[in-house]
Amino acid sequence: MVGPPQPRVVVGSPRPRVIVGTIRPRVIVGSARAREPRDGTPRPHLATEGPPRPRVIFGTPRARVIVGSPRPQVIVSSPWPAVVVASPRPRAPVGSPWPRVIVGTPRSRVIVGSARARVAGADQASAPSLGAPQGRRQDEHSGAGAEGPRPGGAAPVPEEGGRFARAQRFPPPRHLRLPGTPDRHRGVSWRHPKQRKEVSGDSVVKARVMWLHCGLVAPLRPLPAICRFKISKVIVVGDLSVGKTCLINRFCKDTFDKNYKATIGVDFEMERFEVLGIPFSLQLWDTAGQERFKCIASTYYRGAQAIIIVFNLNDVASLEHTKQWLADALRENDPSSVLLFLVGSKKDLSTPAQYVLMERDALKVAQEMKAEYWAVSSLTGENVREFFFRVAALTFEANVLAELEKSGARRIGDVVRINSDDNNLYLTANKKKPTCCP
Ligand SMILES: Nc1nc2c(ncn2[C@@H]2O[C@H](COP(=O)(O)OP(=O)(O)OP(=O)(O)O)[C@@H](O)[C@H]2O)c(=O)[nH]1
């Protein structure tokens, strides 16, 4: 497919251009400029004429991500040996406060600009940090319109004492000036956790603005490690057509597609939460159930904090296969630290009697796996939100505990106060009495 670089060959008469033999051969067909030669000889037929072809094609492990459609697509494996990215290239962060990670290659890319966000326990409209429901903005890929007000978004209003409201979102101005910034911000000393040098005055305001654009809080003091933005990787595995993609789509997009479209390799969704005021994201990796894509999908198993094994409640074989899926996923992860969920899908299709029987078997399997069992229906939405909120809560907790273990600050008997601005989050059981008091 990829040969040594060769000189460009222009095939055919006047206009249609076929360029072959380069590292990334490009085929451009159907150009408006292609015309019949004047002498009436038929235009040479290009190999690409005929039925429409898939846009992105290849057979190498370097899956490409096409951005420009609402959902990034990874299209792998087609006989056509070219890679054509027909949509605009993903842009660098444009400064919107909705970070979104789009991954399709080992080199992940972060695109800021996604409009999706959720808050645990609240719908979008009532989410305190989101304002009105957000639509996909033009600036997400084009960068245009970045200065326009986000629908429903308010300008940043500092709270009393000069603190900005936590996780307040607003559109990024191109310049980092805040007209009419209250005087009390001037001279405030502030240092970002990653920033070594102290800044003050105008630069403080600018720095706050920048960090607010990133969806982060600009604190007066560095936030303790456990209060910083967190992210957890969750992989979803299971037999083909058990409903993994539908499950993720029901939760992330609140949609359901009754037509089966096989996942090729992996797909990826990101869902944002705010847990106890701390921004938290779930990376949901939807893997292909088809055997032929297993080798691609399994390369994405590593580093998962939770594994969701899905089976069809109406298909006993898919339940039996869950053990194999688990074994494969655990090969790439630490079994002692990963959270396991066994999810029976398509609950709407089983009768109560069938469900009782299946549930008994499923509970047995879940017990063997030490997994938490859930039964859901992506069609009706039953239990879907509850399930993912549970996943978010448990992964968040595991994340915080891991952070504490890492910092060495946690001791048995300590009480952890998470919803605090205090630097010292640990209420040590045997506190020293102040020496000044009797
Ligand atoms: N009735 C019903 N059908 C469902 C449900 N979930 C998924 N389906 C259907 O099952 C089929 C397969 O769903 P997918 O989500 O694409 O399956 P998948 O596990 O992602 O399949 P692969 O990508 O091949 O691994 C689709 O036709 C869905 O419409 C459900 O809860 N109820």
UniProtKB/TrEMBL annotation:
Q: Which SUPFAM superfamilies does the record cross-reference, listed alphabetically? A: P-loop containing nucleoside triphosphate hydrolases
Q: Which GO terms describe its molecular function?
A: G protein activity; GTP binding; metal ion binding
Its top-level enzyme class, in one word, is hydrolase
- Which Gene3D superfamilies does the record cross-reference, listed alphabetically? P-loop containing nucleotide triphosphate hydrolases
Output the GO biological process annotations, alphabetical, semicolon-separated.
Answer: cell projection organization; protein transport
Signal peptide positions are: none
Reported EC number(s) for this entry are 3.6.5.2
Xref: Pfam families: Ras
- Under the cellular component aspect of Gene Ontology, which terms does the record hold? centriole; cilium; Golgi apparatus; phagocytic vesicle membrane
Entry keyword set: Acetylation, Cell projection, Cilium biogenesis/degradation, Cytoplasm, Cytoplasmic vesicle, Cytoskeleton, Golgi apparatus, GTP-binding, Hydrolase, Lipoprotein, Magnesium, Membrane, Metal-binding, Nucleotide-binding, Phosphoprotein, Prenylation, Protein transport, Transport
Looking at the keywords, is tRNA-binding present?
no
Q: Which cofactor does it need?
A: Mg(2+)
- Which residue ranges are recorded for the region named Disordered? 30-55, 118-199
User: Topology versus the membrane, per the UniProt entry?
Assistant: Lipid-anchor
**InterPro entries recorded for this chain?**
P-loop_NTPase, Rab, Small_GTP-bd, Small_GTPase
Primary residence? other
Subcellular location per the Swiss-Prot or TrEMBL entry = Cell projection, Cilium; Cytoplasm, Cytoskeleton, Microtubule organizing center, Centrosome, Centriole; Cytoplasmic vesicle, Phagosome membrane; Golgi apparatus
Please indicate if the UniProt record lists Phosphoprotein as a keyword: yes
The UniProt entry's coiled-coil ranges are: none
In which domain of life is the source organism classified? Eukaryota
Biased segments, Low complexity type: 143-169
What SMART domains does the database record attribute to this sequence?
RAB (SM00175), RAN (SM00176), RAS (SM00173), RHO (SM00174)
Q: Output compositional bias ranges, type Basic and acidic residues.
A: 33-42
**Stored PANTHER family:** RAS-RELATED PROTEIN RAB
To which protein family does this belong? Belongs to the small GTPase superfamily. Rab family.
UniProt-recorded name of the protein:
Ras-related protein Rab-34
Organism, scientific name = Pteropus vampyrus
